[in-house]
Design brief:
Rossmann fold; six-stranded antiparallel beta barrel; 2 domains; five-stranded parallel sheet; alpha/beta; 16 helices; elongated
Length: 500
Amino acid sequence: MSEIQRLKPIKKARIGLYSGGLKAYWSQFEGMKERLIEYGKFIEENLSKFGVVYNYGLVDDEVAGRTAGEWFNEKNVDIIFSHSATYYTSSTVLPLHQICKAPVILLNLQPTPQMNYERTSTGEWLAHCGACPVPEIANAFNRAGIKCKIINGLLGLKETPAISVTDEVTYNRPEAIKAWKEISEWAMAATVKRTLQHARFGFLGNNYSGMLDMYSDFTMLQAQLGIHVEILEMCDLDRNLNKVTDEEVQAKLKQVEEFFTISGDSPSDPIAKKPTKEQLEWACKVAAAQERMVKEYDLDSIAYYYHGSEDNHYEQVQGGFIVGHSLLTAAGIPCAGEGDLKTAIAMKICDTLDTGGSFTEIVAADYIEGTMILGHDGPFHIKISDGKPVLRGMGVFHGKRGTGVSVEANVISGPVTTLGVTQTQEGKVKFNISEGDAVKAPILMIGNTQTHVKFPLHPDAYMDKWFAQAPTHHCAMSVGHNAALFEKAATLLDIKHALI
C-alpha cells in the first residue's frame, strides 16, 4: 500500500552549536584545538539529522562569545547546543547567552569511557575534561537568570582520532546511546516550537455549543504558542466545493478504496450501514474541496464543527467531513472535530514528531481487560491504524445533525502516549501527558474509532489522576512512548505540563 504524502513540509529546527574552549591552551598543546574542532563537527553531523545546524566552532574567550551571540541571533536559531569540549571560563560563554536568548543545552560528552592513565599527558587529559567547567557554567547561568539543561554521557565516536592515546569508539555504549537520545529529543522539540510558530490553524465553523472546555482565546494561543488562527466560514469550503471536478472525485475514490475497507451493515447498530455509492461519492467530493481549501489558505491544521438548521445545505456538506479530514490528517494536516482547537494543536505536535496523533476521548473503561477505551466518531489518523480503517454509513451522527460516512478503526498495538492540551484558570496553556500500551481487544461496530489502552494504573486510578488535572475531554493519541519528547517541547514553549 502506498503512503499518503504530506501536503506541507515540517519546519525543521534551526539549531545553534558551538564548542567551549580556553584560548590559552592552543599554543601550549599542539593539535588540541584541531581535535576539539573535529569533535564539534561530529556533533554537527549527528544534529543535522534533526534540523539545519549553524556551527560557530570554538568559543574560546569573551570576545568570541559576544560575536557568537550576535551570529546566532542573525541565524535565528531555535535552540543552542553548547559543547563543553575542555575546561573554559564561564566568562567566555555567559555574554553569548545574554545576547542570544535561545534555549541552551549544555553537552558534557566525554570522548572515552576511561583515560589511558599510563600514557595520558596534560594535553590528552584536557581533551577529556569537559565535565570540569560544567558546575561553573551552571552557576554563572543561574546567577544571570539563564535557564539551561545539561546532558552528560559519552561522545559516541565510531573511530578513534589519530591524536588520541586511548580507545574513543563509544557509539555502542549505553552512556552514548542515552546522551544522543536526549540530544535528539531536544532537537525534535525545537522543531515542534518552530513548526507551531509558523503554523496556520484553520477554525472552520464554530465550537459544539455548550462544550465549555473547547472554548479558547485565539490571542492567548498565539501569544503562548506562536500559531496563527485563520477563521473560516462554511462558504469558504462551499466555494471550493463548487470548483471540484469529476476527476478530483475519482482520485479521492481511488484513495478511499486503497486506504479504507468499505463495510457492510453493522451486526449490532441499526444506524451503521454499508455506505451507499452516493454517500461515498459525496464524501469524496467534500474531501477534494477540503484539500483545495487547505491549499488556498496554506493551512497546517483544522479545527472544525458545524451545526446548521435541519436540511440546510451546509449540514449536507458537514455530513461528508470525516473521510476528508481523516485523509488530511494522514497528509500532515491534523483535523480535530467539535471545534477543538487545543486538541488540533496536540495532534499537530504529535504529527510534527512523526508519532501520529489521532483525535480521541474516553469512550469507556473495560474493567475485565483492565483498559481504557479511547476513540471518537472521527476523524482518524490512518497512518497509525491497525489494518485498514472501516468506513460505515451513518444514519445519525450522535448528538449532531446530518448523516454521512464515518470511520471505524483502532490504533496499532504497542506503546502509545496521549497528549492533551488544556487551558488553566489563569489562562495558561497546559499539557497533560500519559503513557500506556494499545492492546488488541474487541471494539464496538458503530462507525467510531476506538482503541483499548492499558495504562500502568488500574482504570479507576488512571481516571482519578487524569481528571484531577482538569483536562479537556479530548486528547491526541500518538504511537510510541513519547512523554520525554512532549515534556521537552513543553519546556521549550515555556508551557506547564503534567505526566500522569
